[in-house]
Amino acid sequence: MLFIIDRTSHTSVQNQLREQIIAAILNGQLPPGTKMPSTRKLAKDLSLSRTTVVIVYDKLVESEFLGVADRSGFVVAAITSGTPAEKSKAEENNLGTGVDWRSWIDGRLAGQRNIIKPANWQDYPYPFVYGQPDASLFPLPAWRECSRQAMSQMAMRDWANDAVTQDDPQLVE
């Protein structure tokens, strides 16, 4: 097995797994294109929650260490931006927070088109402003009840069901 989790370490299990996968990619043990073990298999092999492995894989996809192959799982991505040492240093700096906020904000703001509206837009008889519901017409009690039902444990069993081997029949229909 390539990865070993130290349960006595002060480093979280997620960070340990993430660091080990990054190290294996950067030192060539996992070359680009290598198919990663499924989240279920890796979780079982390491005696971890599948959710933990899914979170680690998702973070590695965000960091461009892994890619997603349609219906085939995760594969090691080719490191394209920066040298492996630079990539490793950047990852090392973000392991605690998980997000390089400055880059994220700069990237989001660069392509953003701001809505320009007058300061007194709420006083207009028909203030058609994107994303601003009319408080007098919005069915807030019904919205709350709908949200409460959708987030209940019973409902979550339906919408969070993991049907790996089959498509959702309602979506197909």
User: Which stretches of 5+ consecutive residues score pLDDT under 50?
Assistant: 93-97
The strands making up the biggest β-sheet line up spatially as 1-2
Assembly classification: single chain
What portion of residues belong to β-strands?
Answer: under 5%
Category by helix and strand content: mainly alpha
Q: Number of helix segments?
A: 8
Global shape: extended
Give the overall average pLDDT.
78
How would a crystallographer describe the biggest sheet? 2 strands, antiparallel
General description of the model:
With 173 residues, the chain is mostly helical. It has 8 helices and 2 strands; from the N terminus they run H-H-H-E-E-H-H-H-H-H. The protein has helices at 13-26, 39-46, 50-62, 84-94, 101-110, 140-150, 153-159, 169-172; strands spanning 66-69, 73-76. Helix 1 packs antiparallel against helix 4. The radius of gyration is 22 Å and the shape is extended.
Summarize the structure.
This protein is mainly alpha-helical and 173 residues long. Helix content is 45%, strand content 5%. It has helices at 13-26, 39-46, 50-62, 84-94, 101-110, 140-150, 153-159, 169-172; strands at 66-69, 73-76.
